[in-house]
Amino acid sequence: MRKLVYYVAVTLDGRIAGPGGEYDFFPVGDERQSAAYSNWTNTLFPETVPTAYRAAIGLADAPNRHFDTVVMGLGAYRPALDAGITSPYAHLRQYVVSSTLEPDTDPAVTVVPGDPLALVRELKREDGAGPDVWLCGGGKLAGALLPELDELVIKNYPVVAGAGIPAFDGAFDPTVFDVAERTAFPNGVTLTHLTRR
To answer: Pick from 44, 59, 94, 167: CA 20 to 30 A from residue 65's CA?
Structure first.
């Protein structure tokens, strides 16, 4: 069965963005550190790079390694939409969970106005052992999908936001994950892969 994997950047205080959705405050280190970190993560997860940027960083023809589908909330979709990009991950099947987004925003994007748990359960049951499903964000959607989350890949940045969008925004529901692997980078970022216990 396919897995649902939450691959996301997080501050030390558990924020995936600032109060206004901003994420440009995440420190990436000096030019050399930033390039090494980006090359490593982009090589490992090339499909998480938006389509508009793939050619510029040499990933235009890179195959999807882990995911063939992305699920995101309106907050995660909004930055691309505001930039006039209606299909940010054209190399993936795209689902946006939103009760307010117009269903015909883009023919390559499926708007899901209802139950995200039903959507994810259906995606996980699809025939064949194909690539996994990437949960791109945001916090409310991650909170709603916690019962179906199989793995977390957390890029933890050495910064405290103080306020903003939490990685998980939902009911109190302690859910234990085990650390499968952890990699530290010279720019202070740690990437931790966790699996559901």
So the answer is: 167
Tokens, residue 192: 């931790």
CA distance 144 to 142: 5
Q: What is the mean pLDDT of each run of 10 residues along the chain (197 residues)?
A: 96 97 95 96 97 95 96 96 97 97 97 97 86 96 98 98 97 96 97 97
CA-nearest of 186, 185, 149 to 44 is 185
Query: In which residue are the tokens 């117009």 written?
Result: 102
Residue 129: per-residue pLDDT: 66
What lies within 8 Å, CB to CB, of 78 at 6+ separation is 21
Q: Quote the CA–CA distance of 81 and 75 in Å, as a whole number.
A: 10
Distance CA 196, CA 189 (A): 22
pTM of the model: 0.96
**φ, ψ dihedrals at 178, nearest 5°:** -100, 140
| H or E segment and range at residue 166 | strand 165-166
Q: How far is CA 115 from the centre of its chain?
A: 19
Q: Give the separation between CA 37 and CA 57, rounded to whole angstroms.
A: 13
Tell me if 109 sits within 8 A of 51, measured CB to CB. Answer: no
